[in-house]
Structures are given as C-alpha cells and as structure tokens.
Amino acid sequence: xxxxxxLSVIPFSxxxxxxxxxxxxxxxxxxxxxxxxxxxxxxxxxxxELSFGAFxxxxxxxxxxxxxxxxxxxxxxxxxxxxxxxxxxGKGLGKGLLEYTISKIREAGINQYILEVLCSNKPAxxxxxxxxxxxxxxxxxxxxxxxxxxxxxxxxxxxxxxxKYPKTxxxxxxxxxxxxxSSWQNSYESINRVKDDIDLVExxxxxxxxAFGYIEKHTGDIPHIGVHPQYRRQGIGSNxxxxxxxxxxxxxxxxINVPEHHDELxxxxxxxxxxxxxxxxxxxxxx
Length: 287
Description:
This protein is α+β, with helices and mostly antiparallel strands. The chain is built from 9 helices and 12 strands. It has 2 domains: 2-110, Gcn5-related N-acetyltransferase (GNAT) (Aminopeptidase), CATH 3.40.630.30; 141-282, Aminopeptidase, CATH 3.40.630.30.
C-alpha cells in the first residue's frame, strides 16, 4: 500500500538510493554521492520535516525535497528536487505526492511554493499548472569548460580599476545585483550557508564597487556575476568570467538560472561562443 510521510527520520542512505534511482532515466541523467547530495541540501536549506516521500510499505519510491525560508519577502517553500523511481513512474504517484505536499506546507503557514522545471518537461509543467502554479520567468542555464573561457583573447582590464579578492561575501552587492533577483539556489541566503566554499572577486572604480563574481570552486558553479549598468561593454564581465575560471578547481563550469530577458549576460556568453544548455520555468504557487 502506498502512503506518504515526511523524511525527517528516514536514513540518508535510503534517501540517496531513491534519488539516484529516480534520476537514472531523467532527461539529463546524473548520480550523486552521499557527500554531494548532502552538500546540495545544505546550500539550498533543506527542511526534512516539510520534505515528503512516497512509500510502498517501507521502501521509499518517490520524494519531494523542500527547502524553507524567505524569498522576495515572503515565507516560502522551494522544491529542490522531485523524483519517482523508474518502476513506479507513470502510475500517478507524482500527482498524489504533490497534493500531499501542498496540503502540508499550507498547514505549516507557508505563503508561497516555488520550483523550477525544465521547459522540455511538458508532463511535469502541465501537472504544476493543473495545481495552480504560474510561470514567473524563464531561466537560461549554461554549462561549459574552463578552456572555452581561457582560450579566448580577452583585453586586459583597465589599470584604473582595482581587483579585490575579499574573504567574506558582500551581501550588499549580492542583494543589489543591479538588475535581477537571484533564483533560490543562487540567493544570498543559499550562498551564505556554504560561504566557506565560495570564492569571490570584486572590481572597484576607486572606492566604488562596480562588478563582482562568486564561484563555488569545487563544483565550478557560478551563482552570480554582476556589472553595474554604467560600466558594461568595457570587457569587465569577460574579465570576471576569466578570473572565476582561473579560480575554479573544476574543469567543468556552470552558470544556471539567468533570466531569459537579461540581454547583457546572454551577450556575455555569446561573446565566448557558449551555447545555451537548457531552459527552465521558474514557477510559483500562492498559498
């Protein structure tokens, strides 16, 4: 018999096994180690009390991992991963688990529920629409290698600018990114949870910060790059991108969840001949 429960007392090894099975036949298949999944949950702020699993007797066969916190000034739950293991897919379990999850986070007094879904995943998109989720924006994702950045000829940064490598995250810069709100996993709150694993570069014109970039060195994940509008198209963004590539311990790099309307960042990646990897809908359900 199928039942639904929260994941607060479920052994992490069981959660990991279910996760890897569920994503073994995903549109972009991937597998994570125990350390990798644990780290991902830490950065995103997992709440196992409000994360739920589908069980067949005692076997975990599906899950919705939820993070909780504040986003855009509201109490928010964020679905950081949903999956059903292959032999149970196509049997309506995702629908049942989603209904159960929505009811529980509503009971908890959460104001909104947000998530991202691949634009190519039409069945999931239609399911979320059925339950009242609305598209907030479309997000672009880029995956590329160090060489795609470092092999390009980039003019050196003007000597009038000063480059700094601060030891602490500048929350003022990250919260004031000049033109767009970060997605949940790239927000200041998320980055601050793993601040010891984030390296920073900032560029100043005299004493005024005009650009910044942050990277999670061991994964090659770039949460955010920002250049003040008055200083764009001067090669500053390109120099930030090159500096972050040099700082990375990972050969593979990624910058996910760039708003589709952000012409400047899209232009930056096109200037390196880096193609769009995938698109996601960012969706919201008001509770």
